[in-house]
Amino acid sequence: MAARSDLAFDPWDAAFLADPYPAYAELRALGRVHYYEPTDQWLVPHHADVSALLRDRRLGRAYQHRFTHEDFGRTAPPPEHEPFHTLNDHGMLDLEPPDHTRIRRLVSKAFTPRTVERLKPYVRTLAGDLVSGLVEAGGGDLLTDVAEPLPVAVIAEMLGIPEADRAQLRPWSADICGMYELNPSQETARKAVRASVEFSAYLRELIEQRRREPGEDLVSGLIAAYDEGDRLTEQEMISTCVLLLNAGHEATVNATVNGWWALFRHPDQLAALRADHSLVPSAVEELMRYDTPLQLFERWVLDDIEIDGTVVPRGAEIAMLFGSANHDPAVFAAPEELDLTRGDNPHISFSAGIHYCIGAPLARIELASSMTALLEKAPTLRLAAEPERKPNFVIRGLEGLAVEMG
């Protein structure tokens, strides 16, 4: 299939980044799969296809469990990027069975529903304190004052990272996550490699401390977790901790600011939410659907697959468009409308299949806690200035969200 030159999809265009959803509608109308030459990827825009492909074992987050780079028709990453790839490739998000199965099982022993439930009071108290600070100041940046510190502190608390060390976490995470954008620059790669080296060294030291003096934290739990004599290697532990931090706050931070920006643009919905706080759980789901924090998720084609008569060959890369799938009218009634009462909401913002987000229950608690605190403590919260969108496509967020009390 030849590359189309008429696609409205342009992840480097400012207008597209501001609002990609009309372009997604065009993509869906044009068909179920499209080859996009600038990134050498096959774009999949429909909910049914994305949902099915996330569960299809002919696709994988990795391919080296079955093929060499040469066999797969791909070029090995540059040697100078090795620290990033070592860190990234040992986390369960980028592993396939049997390694993925083993690591997820062991992590699940430490990251239990009880662990998450036990954090609820901490999350609610912290969200309340952060919002109180915002109110006392008369306003500020919702991103840096509430959205960011909450999930970073929660995952750091879970991992047992001392408070004095937590300021480093967000910059490390942001630099590493830069590599998940399409066609990252050399400067992005350089920063990601440096952050990978520094973050790994920090965690190696923390793991050593916990081996000597175990605590109630997740790092101690990961050290202790074993199954039929199987344990996590040190690298797997380091990669798991970084993954939990990166995935555990990037989505929550961006879902929070994207969500409030959407609410400010839909005053009727915000008024309904302020009048009825029992809407918070459905509001969290709808806001994650309406402006999806992770727009695209990539998979390698391990065996030829056919989509609507088009054969996508082994060695190709598929880009599943979560943002488009979440606006598919075949699944969502009036998808371009923000409806906080939407009952049937099978959005795929947390992915699906074996790579479904292990931290989804915690993310929901964080999002609901910050939203509830803002509704209760800042009932007159309003936008102070039009926000700027980050120049990223895959991880969708804002540079900041200036707010004030009305």
List the helices and strands and how they pair.
Elements: H1 14-18, H2 21-30, E1 34-36, E2 41-44, H3 47-53, E3 59-60, H4 82-89, H5 99-110, H6 113-136, E4 139-141, H7 142-147, H8 149-159, H9 169-177, H10 186-212, H11 218-224, E5 226-227, E6 230-231, H12 234-265, H13 267-275, H14 280-290, E7 296-301, E8 305-307, E9 310-312, E10 317-321, H15 322-325, H16 360-377, E11 381-383, E12 402-405
Helix pairs in contact: 4-10, 4-12, 5-11, 6-8, 6-16, 8-12, 9-10, 9-12, 10-12, 12-14, 12-16, 14-16
Question: Overall mean pLDDT score?
Answer: 92
CATH superfamily: Cytochrome P450
Radius of gyration: 21 Å
Largest sheet: 5 strands, mixed
What is the helix/strand order?
Answer: HHEEHEHHHEHHHHHEEHHHEEEEHHEE
Helix content: 40-55%
What multimeric state do the chains show?
A: single chain
Residue share in β-strands? 5-15%
Distance between the termini: 55 Å
The strand count comes to 12
Q: Per CATH, which architecture?
A: Orthogonal Bundle
List low-confidence stretches.
none
- Helix count, DSSP H or I runs of 4 or more residues: 16
Q: What is the CATH class? A: Mainly Alpha
Strand order of the largest sheet: 1-2-10-7-3
Label the overall shape: globular
